[in-house]
Design goal:
Shape: globular
Number of domains: 1
CATH class: Mainly Alpha
CATH architecture: Orthogonal Bundle
CATH topology: Arc Repressor Mutant, subunit A
Structural class: mainly alpha
Largest sheet: none
Helix content: over 70%
Radius of gyration: 13 Å
Length: about 80
């Protein structure tokens, strides 16, 4: 298994990261990814702001699957546009 985390994996783990629910090794990989990926740093900041503004915790399992897919699609398009 590679030590580098992909952006997609980071997006999938963001809720667990924010809720301090990642094992130490995964948290380290997550944070190392943030040191080399400004797009994911921005994504994390947006999720934190959304959570703070909504006044509640966002949990992946409470999101409608279609809405989650739409959010991931927007993020992927943004990432592609910002690195293209």
């Amino acid at each position: 298994m590679t030590d580098q985390m992909s952006c997609q994996t980071m997006v999938e783990l963001v809720t667990a990261y924010l809720e301090d629910d990642l094992p130490a090794s995964e948290r380290d990989r997550f944070e190392r990814h943030l040191t080399v990926c400004p797009g994911c740093v921005e994504y994390l900041a947006q999720i934190r702001a959304t959570t703070r503004l909504s006044g509640q915790r966002l949990r992946e399992h409470t999101l409608d699957p279609d809405y989650r897919d739409e959010l991931l699609g927007v993020f992927r398009r943004w990432r592609n546009d910002s690195h293209g």
